[in-house]
Write a structure and sequence with these properties.
Chain lengths: 627, 685
């Protein structure tokens, strides 16, 4: 029976933690992307990816496009709307000027992202000027206030759904820190007041407004001019915000991308440090394999989804079993039975608690102490005031003394020994690369570690195992220097299989004929490796290790060994096959009387496949004999 | 099957100096056999004890000598009796000679399996090696050992020797220990022997791999540095998690008299249309897989999918070298692989060695792109780190860890710690207390064995499961046993280490104060309760350890302000020590008095009444009316003196009067007196 084989990319086992990424509808997020489309967004540029200048508008749009693509893969229950303001055309329910809600067919304005949305949004820049147009909405002398209108439209879009079940956000992208700067005093005051009131109304409804400012090369985005009041910052927040907002321009896109995420806590745990000293931690899954979504079975005639009903049937009586069955393990000629609760009891060790056992120097954490992706922990003072301060103190000493903590984590399904490695904050050009906190690394147990090196011991000779000499090591070091990349980042490769998967799905979803080519970023840099200098160092290393006869070696050694065994097997088969007069047997139709083993001997001798049932073997022999 | 059968002889030192650890040895060996009973039932195991009073082995009858060695069990296919034998090891009376035992073990294997070269032959020696071995008749001890070791290699035997030392063995002659260690190290040089030194019962339990896994290569082929230069390598798993066994479902439907009942359960899946209530089952050929893409489900048949899916070519290719610091430790995604040069390929071994050593010297790592087999649906990008061998006989190799792809990383931003308010920043003393803790709670003190080394740490869950399985096979209704002391050390801090660093913990308590967040509702206060429970936990370490397993996490040792009633009840019900009751009543009395005294305009009275009610109930149950009645009299005095009326009225309305004789035998209060207790007060006030 083929069950739902969520086979593609799936490893042998499921990761219990994975369920946290299969997001449920309980905690969805409604987001309105509010994009300033004023002429200023098009005229200001910043250096982009290929060191070519790109406009702020382009950066914003490509960020949103990227985020939509991530979202449709990871969090497809979230709903989004895309709304431009300072536009020439208008399109919104309230029919307000200067606001354009972008949407595609078969989709509500605030809805889950669809393939079509992604596709059409991808090429929005081509048609933007023609169909939507850019025009400053706030001009002296008119009473129009496009920012006010935009907030109003966004708020109306977010009216859907209860605040209890959904997280509602407005993400505002702009490069104008003083939207009412060009106005007369009275008008400016008035507009500022009404706009702030509008923002406050939205916030009172539980909608959070987040600002993603884009700085110009010549002048920084000054939050305190207007937006600090709009977002509701106080002094402390402001300092922090400006700090992270004053990023270098090349990282702007990166910044935008990071800030569009919301953090999701996996669970709260208590970290037991000493008797009477348990602090509160939140755990986050920063790194988990992304797998393509689950398979939904469809009726191929109607394309309607199918439901799967599982039933348990007793093999002895054929009766249906309703209750949760007991489990058993055959042992000592008996079936030892366990109730599901008993199994849970066996697995329960200090549930939900992370219990500190001690500290070790970082050098004790070997490269092979790893089983699963790590989990990130960060303190919280939500329930226990004082947690953060304990955590910071420990974090600091662990970093300083280069030690990690060993602890036992009593996760319900999978209690395990873990290493807690402190990670200091790493920032690069104002952007956070590594967040401060600790990483929980799951340690293996004695039976999880294998010792294959031991099996490689050189025993049959007096000599030690072959080692490279100094010259060879130097040659290898030269090679390393040649093929060295300075700034490698673990983030630089997209998963080619996943990219392909979604490219195919997108093409099929849009009923396109051509499937776009996807680039495999993980392919080695053949061009770089073919550079003469690189080739030269490689050749030198090869010569120092292999001498002149490298080619011989690479072609023969493996095959010879395998060949020997198979030749031997063949010789045995040949001898055995001689026992029968195959032609005669075949004529008389007596092949059926032989054993499968005997038949296989014939097949082996004649280099034919030996798989299949007896009938298949016989017919293969007959075909081979030409009968 | 037969080809893979393992023949194992356990050589167990049962001499007097080993008696302390024999319970762990029994557990370790039974675990080994228990797992064999499930996973490799055809393996054969023999048991030899040395240091016994008696002598019983073939060699002694044939050639003489070899005294005080008893073959408890000749090699046979594993069965339940073997476990019973191992769980009741004899306690020997003499100091054993481990070398003699090795010879006896080898003799057993040679005699029984002389002509069968296939299959695996293994010896497993557990001793403390603190007693000298006998001098040999010819040649030095060293020569003798060398001869035996050569024979062992010639016979294709492997050995594991577990030497119990440190805290576990008594004081012993250093010279003899060194000599023995040297002799054992000859085995490790000349044969496939793993020498392991353990110094705690916990690591003894983890010292022997109890489950035998046949190593399988994940990949055999070229490690391609460039199209011109390829090194032949084999890739194995270095770590792989041992899973909790998958149990079968049990059906109780079969009649008890049916002897042939399999009790198996078949799991059946039926695919039905969602919409209509019809029960038509859609046959497999009419089903098609659909993948979600946003709100849409895209149907795609397997054949179509095969035509368009990503199909990488098999091969392991170098992408680049980079600085080791670029790869963060926490990015490792999966279990770990081992890259070794092709077996017997000297030049590949040298090439691997050269690159590994150069990587170590330059502190670099290599990034590889791997497709282990043809038809694999994805590529793996990972990092290759050097593994420089410390043993001259073992070639250098690499470890390989899988790295995440861009899609796998969530770049959440967290506020830096220095952005938090000053009140959250640890002050100098707090930092010092934390520093002390990090330094002193040391699991890898220099000069001593590292505790909780993963290599020697058994999986407590699996230990518990297999022990429980064995127990249940004998007693079907046995309850799940708590973790034993040796395993507790894996899940809880070592009490010895904690008490040794008492001053460090005291400082920690002095400088850090945790408070529940006042804004939160009571229901979510689980953290704080835990905190209260531990404030005087140091004196009661012993009890705490005992109770953690089954009295879920909180142990109340003090009545707190937040939930005095619950705390009181919890304390009263703690049965591990009779003192709890007295302590609880005393504490509750004090709490009530302090509540009354510190009450401003009666705001606490509601709580006071609840506490009194609880105390009254508790005192009746325990038949201890004295403290309660005293308290009530005291309260009446107090209220009378201060002219408080509301409290007595409240108490009267809840019928919380004195405990009368009818409720508790020891009371000196009659029923009538109790009834009229507060009534009498009223005229006074």
């Amino acid at each position: 029976m083929d069950l739902d084989p969520e086979d593609v990319f799936k490893d042998e086992e499921d990761d219990p933690d994975n369920e946290f990424f299969q997001q449920n509808e309980g905690s969805k997020e409604y987001v309105v992307y509010l994009v300033d489309a004023s002429p200023k967004m098009f005229s200001t540029t910043c250096p982009g990816n290929d060191l070519k200048d790109e406009s702020h508008f382009h950066s914003t749009v490509s960020c949103i496009a990227e985020s939509l693509k991530t979202q449709i893969i990871n969090r497809s229950y979230d709903e989004v709307a895309i709304c431009f303001f300072n536009t020439r055309e208008k399109k919104n329910l309230q029919d307000l000027n200067g606001v354009f809600v972008f949407n595609v067919a078969e989709r509500e304005q605030l809805d889950r992202p669809t393939a079509r949305l992604i596709k059409e949004f991808d090429c929005i820049e081509e048609s933007f000027m023609r169909e939507i147009g850019s025009q400053n909405g706030i001009v002296p002398g008119s009473r129009e206030n496009s920012l006010y209108n935009a907030l109003w439209v966004a708020q109306a879009l977010l009216r859907k759904g209860s605040i209890k079940t959904a997280d509602k956000r407005i993400l505002l992208f702009t490069n104008e820190d003083d939207p009412f700067g060009g106005l007369q005093d009275a008008a400016k005051k008035d507009m500022t007041r009404t706009t702030l009131q509008r923002a406050k109304d939205a916030q009172d409804l539980g909608i959070s407004i987040e600002l993603l400012p884009l700085s110009r090369p010549d002048s920084e985005f000054n939050v305190s001019v207007f937006y600090a009041d709009l977002i509701g910052f106080n002094g402390q927040d402001l300092a922090q915000f400006t700090d992270s907002a004053s990023q270098k321009l090349e990282d702007m896109k990166d910044q935008l991308r990071k800030r569009m995420f919301t953090k999701r806590v996996i669970r709260k745990i208590q970290f037991h440090i000493a008797d009477g000293l348990s602090i509160e931690l939140n755990t986050y899954a920063l790194i988990r394999p992304t797998v393509p979504g689950a398979i939904t079975w469809l009726d191929s005639v109607t394309n309607h989804p199918l439901k799967i009903e599982r039933s348990l049937i007793c093999e002895d009586t054929g009766a249906l079993i309703q209750e949760r069955p007991k489990l058993f393990q055959p042992y000592r000629n008996e079936n030892v039975k366990f109730s599901p609760d008993e199994i849970a009891d066996i697995k329960r060790i200090s549930p939900g608690r992370l219990c500190l056992l001690g500290f070790k120097p970082l050098s004790c954490l070997k490269d092979y102490y790893n089983l699963r992706p790590s989990t990130f922990v960060y303190p919280s003072d939500q329930e226990v005031v004082g947690s953060t301060s304990v955590f910071i103190a420990l974090h600091r000493s662990m970093l300083q003394r280069k030690r990690f903590a060993v602890a036992f984590y009593g996760a319900a399904s999978h209690p395990q020994l873990v290493a807690l490695v402190a990670q200091d904050e790493v920032t690069s050009a104002g952007a956070q690369v590594e967040p401060p906190g600790m990483h929980m690394i799951y340690l293996p147990y004695s039976d999880d570690i294998r010792d294959e090196e031991e099996a490689r011991k050189y025993l049959n000779t007096e000599d030690d195992a072959p080692r490279a000499d100094e010259d060879q090591i130097q040659k290898a070091a030269a090679l390393i220097k040649r093929i060295y990349v300075k700034d490698f980042s673990t983030l630089q490769f997209a998963n080619p299989a996943l990219q392909r998967h979604y490219a195919v799905l997108q093409a099929l979803a849009l009923e396109e004929d051509d499937i776009p080519e996807t680039i495999d970023e993980t392919a080695p840099d053949e061009e770089g490796l073919a550079r003469p200098a690189v080739v030269k160092t490689i050749e030198e290393f090869k010569l120092s290790v292999y001498g002149d006869n490298y080619d011989e070696e690479s072609d023969n050694l493996g095959k010879e060994k395998a060949g020997e065994a198979s030749r031997k097997r063949k010789a045995i088969a040949e001898n055995a096959a001689k026992d029968y007069d195959w032609g005669k047997l075949a004529e008389k139709g007596q092949l059926n009387n032989l054993t499968v083993a005997a038949l296989k001997n014939y097949l082996t001798v004649n280099n034919l496949p030996v798989s299949g049932k007896k009938e298949a073997l016989i017919s293969r022999i007959l075909t081979h004999m030409g009968k | 099957m037969a080809r893979n059968k393992e023949k194992l002889v356990l050589l167990l030192d049962v001499g007097p100096s080993m008696h302390g650890v024999l319970p762990e040895v029994e557990k370790l060996c039974s675990m080994l056999v228990e797992k064999k009973l499930i996973f490799s039932k055809y393996d054969e195991v023999g048991v030899v004890a040395f240091g016994t009073e008696e002598t019983n082995n073939d060699l002694t009858t044939e050639v003489g000598g070899y005294e005080n060695i008893t073959v408890l069990q000749d090699t046979k296919v594993v069965d339940g009796d073997l476990i019973d034998t191992l769980q009741k090891l004899p306690r020997g009376t003499l100091d054993g000679d481990f070398l003699d035992a090795i010879v006896v073990g080898m003799d057993m294997l040679i005699k029984k399996y002389k002509d069968i070269f296939k299959g695996k032959k293994r010896l497993c020696l557990i001793t403390n090696a603190i007693h000298p071995i006998k001098d040999s008749l010819e040649g030095s001890k060293e020569d003798q050992v060398t001869t035996i070791a050569e024979q062992m290699t010639a016979q294709g035997m492997k050995m594991e020797s577990i030497v119990v030392r440190g805290r576990l063995s008594q004081d012993a002659d250093k010279r003899i220990m060194d000599e023995n260690d040297h002799l054992l190290s000859i085995f490790s040089k000349k044969t496939r022997t793993r020498n392991v030194y353990v110094d705690s019962p916990t690591s003894l339990l983890g010292a022997l791999k109890t489950r035998r896994v046949t190593p399988v290569t994940t990949f055999r082929g070229h490690l391609e540095l460039s199209p011109q230069m390829k090194i032949k390598v084999w890739v194995y798993k270095k770590t792989q998690e041992e899973k909790f066994p998958t149990l079968k479902k049990y059906s109780e439907k079969a009649t008890p008299t049916n002897q042939f009942a399999t009790h198996q359960v078949k799991v059946d899946y039926e695919y039905k249309s969602v919409g209509d209530s019809s029960t038509t089952v859609i046959p497999p050929e009419q089903r098609i897989k659909g993948y979600r893409y946003g709100p849409q489900v895209v149907p795609i048949s397997t054949a179509e999918w095969d035509a368009v899916k990503f199909k990488p070519e098999k091969g392991v290719k170098l992408l680049a070298f980079t600085d080791a610091s670029k790869i963060k430790r926490h990015c490792f995604m999966k279990d770990v692989y081992l890259f070794v040069a092709e077996l017997g390929n000297t030049r590949a071994t040298v090439a691997v060695s050269a690159i590994a050593r150069a990587m170590k010297e330059t502190n670099t790592v290599a990034i590889l792109r791997c497709v282990w087999r043809q038809g694999q649906q994805n590529v793996v990008v990972g990092v290759l780190t050097p593994n420089i061998s410390q043993n001259d006989k073992i070639p250098d190799s690499f470890y390989f860890n899988v790295l995440p792809f861009a899609e796998d990383v969530r770049e959440y931003q967290f506020p830096p710690f220095n952005s938090f308010p000053a009140s959250w920043q640890p002050n100098e003393q707090q930092q010092k207390a934390a520093d002390e803790l990090v330094q002193m709670l040391d699991l890898a003190p220099s000069g001593k064995e590292e505790t909780l080394l993963p290599e020697f740490t058994p999986n407590p869950i699996l230990e518990r499961f297999y022990r429980h399985l064995e127990l249940k096979a004998k007693q079907p209704d046995a309850a799940v046993p708590p973790l034993d002391g040796a395993l507790k050390k894996i899940t809880e801090p070592d009490p010895e280490l904690v008490s040794k660093n008492k001053s460090v913990f005291d400082a920690l308590h002095r400088h850090f104060e945790l408070k529940p967040n006042p804004k939160l509702k009571k229901s979510s206060r689980q953290f704080y309760r835990e905190k209260q429970s531990g404030s005087n936990a140091h004196e009661s370490d012993g009890q705490a350890v005992k109770s953690i397993e089954y009295q879920p996490p909180v142990k109340i040792e003090k009545i707190g302000d937040l939930t005095p009633v619950q705390d009181f009840e919890a304390m009263m019900s703690q049965r591990d020590n009779p003192e709890w009751v007295g302590k609880a009543i005393k504490e509750m009395r004090e709490k009530i008095l302090s509540l009354v005294i510190h009450s401003h305009e009666g705001e606490n009275y509601h709580k006071v009444v609840e506490c009194i009610a609880a105390l009254r109930k508790g005192c009746i149950i325990e038949q201890e009316p004295g403290p309660y009645n005293d308290l009530m009299r005291q309260l009446r005095e107090y209220c009378h003196g201060k002219g408080i009326e509301s409290l007595p009225q409240l108490l009267a309305s809840r019928d919380l009067t004195l405990i009368s004789k009818s409720e508790a035998e020891d009371s000196d209060v009659t029923y009538e007196e109790a009834r009229s207790y507060f009534v009498k007060m009223e005229p006074n006030s």
